[in-house]
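Data deposition worksheet. Section B asks for the primary sequence of the deposited chain exactly as it was used as input, without tags or linkers unless they were present during the calculation. Section C holds the resulting structure in token form. Section D is free text for depositor observations; keep each observation to a single sentence. Incomplete worksheets are returned to the depositor.
Section A, Depositor: J.P.
Section B:
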Amino acid sequence: MLRVTLLLLACTFAACSAGASSQSAPASTNLPAFDAATIKPPDPTAGRRLAGFYGKPGGRIFFGGYIKWLVQFAFGLRDYQIAGGPGWVSSQWFEINAVPPETSPSGNIKVRNAEPTPEQRLMLQSLLRDRFGFKCHLETKEGEVFILTRGTKPLQLKTPKDPAADPRAIVVIKEGGFVDGEALGSNTTTDYLAQMLSQYLQLPVLNQTGITGSYDYNLPPDDPENQDISTGVFDVVDRLGLKLKRGRGPVQTLVIDHIEEPSEN
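Section C:
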């Protein structure tokens, strides 16, 4: 059955109403929330900006970037899955530091994490709701996708060395966008692999492999002349014993109905 791999958290989209609507449903007040959060423009004297999401031990988080990126992290979506909103959500940079309640499960996080945990995603949704007046709705339409299936070659997926590690599924892109076939994966599921492949290909990747569990992989460079990211991704997938093909499938889009510049700290 076709599945949009990024919709594992769809049931937690409490800040959005389902389906196109002329008026968004009010956000749930039952979402977990950070105990404290500061939202500021970057310090112009601080040098190079940190960009992206950084999870820290104890559940503290730092985010640097555009609010459209924050929406992506909060809902586990990609750029092409977000529509609407004023221009500043993609042009005005913010830095956010937030701390969870001491009693929250996030307070037990012992290692750094590059992707929000499910609870942290909900906390980011609360932050958007409470500090940005965020409202949205979800639309699902038939669209162009890639479908990930088993290939004809032996699978190059190994038992993970650390089953508790933060998942990784990386096609290595060298400086200047150079791709030579090197790829690294740790404790990744095929759902997570499909999610990351969609980021490289800028289209949804639907996981139809039927492969369960978590895996490591390590592919050395095999094409030092290749400089095309899409070609490199297809090469990596083939060497892993998998296959990508174009198709049609459900594509879920989050539509921003309302958002305001953040309230004062």
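Section D:
Helices lie at 67-75, 118-132, 190-201, 229-239.
The mean pLDDT is 86.
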